[in-house]
Design brief:
113 residues, AhpD-like, 0% strand, peroxiredoxin activity, CMD-like
Amino acid sequence: MSIVSEFNDYRAKMNEEILAQDNLVLKRFFNLDSNAYQDGALDKKTKELLGLIASMVLRCDDCIRYHLGKCFELGVSRDEVFEVFAIANLVGGSICIPHTRRAVEYWSALETA
């Protein structure tokens, strides 16, 4: 199983379990998160790129993988994603380098899936 399918399968399974509890606050949060990334004054692609930068600076590997997947689906190029990596490292500092390594690994897996 690839790292992409492993991540997506686990995420889907656990989101289903979380939402099955019918907790209103969690459902509203999940809905807010989904709606925030829809086209508005900024398009989806821009919002996903911003989400990716924020996730890298906050050092959340799950969020990085999620946003990389969305960026890939939206047609973000390898050059564009590497510019995002550069900005994230500039803003977040050298602590982001290990997350950039894992992000590059995941992006490469997306490209070969």
